[in-house]
Write a structure and sequence with these properties.
EC 2.7.4.3, ATP binding, nucleotide biosynthesis, five-stranded parallel beta sheet, Rossmann fold
């Protein structure tokens, strides 16, 4: 099964993806984690990504698609992928469809975590204070949230028209959100 967890930054996609890895044996392909790994490596790509992300901007489609493509076969061999933070644009969604098609696979379900922007800002501010993740700086987060609403939200009709989209209330407890996701995947 190939699943996209869809929602703005800090909506809980990573938390739910990690749970699905444990309970369903899927592989999480988190562009956020991949980008943080690139930054931590100190590579030229990492330095480039760090500069982009610290401004709150999105990394280019080309970079993100290459990161996903490098890990896709591993995920497919394990029985499926959880795409967390990808795709973010129509171009990325089309690239993902093409990559999966080459493997004889497709997206099986898109789960959108519906959340409140004000509550998200509170979540991020708390996480930034506790963990100090530079991409969770509240000012950068506001830019990322605006970019999500402008660039990524248009993916909803893209997947809705394919009858792949399920919406889940992302403001509930971790357990309640998990139960709703499991129900969507098992239906």
């Amino acid at each position: 099964m190939n699943l996209i967890l869809f929602g703005p930054p800090a909506a809980g996609k990573g938390t739910q993806a990690k749970r699905l890895v444990e309970t369903r044996g899927m592989v999480q392909l988190s562009t956020g984690d991949m980008l943080r790994e690139a930054i931590a490596s100190g590579s030229q790509l990492g330095l480039e990504c760090q500069a982009i992300m610290s401004r709150g901007d999105l990394v280019s489609d080309e970079i993100v698609i290459a990161l996903i493509e490098a890990r896709l076969k591993e995920a497919e061999d394990a029985g499926g992928a959880i795409f967390d933070g990808f795709p973010r644009t129509i171009a990325q969604a089309e690239a993902l469809d093409a990559m999966l098609s080459k493997l004889g696979k497709k997206i099986d379900r898109v789960v959108r975590l519906r959340v409140d922007d004000v509550a998200l800002l509170e979540r991020v501010s708390k996480r930034y204070a506790e963990q100090g993740r530079p991409d969770d700086n509240p000012d950068s987060f506001k830019v990322r949230l605006e970019a999500y609403n402008r660039n990524t939200a248009p993916l909803l009709p893209y997947y809705g028209d394919k009858d792949l989209l399920t919406e889940v209330d992302g403001m509930g407890s971790i357990e309640a959100v998990a139960a709703d996701i499991d129900a969507a995947l098992d239906s």
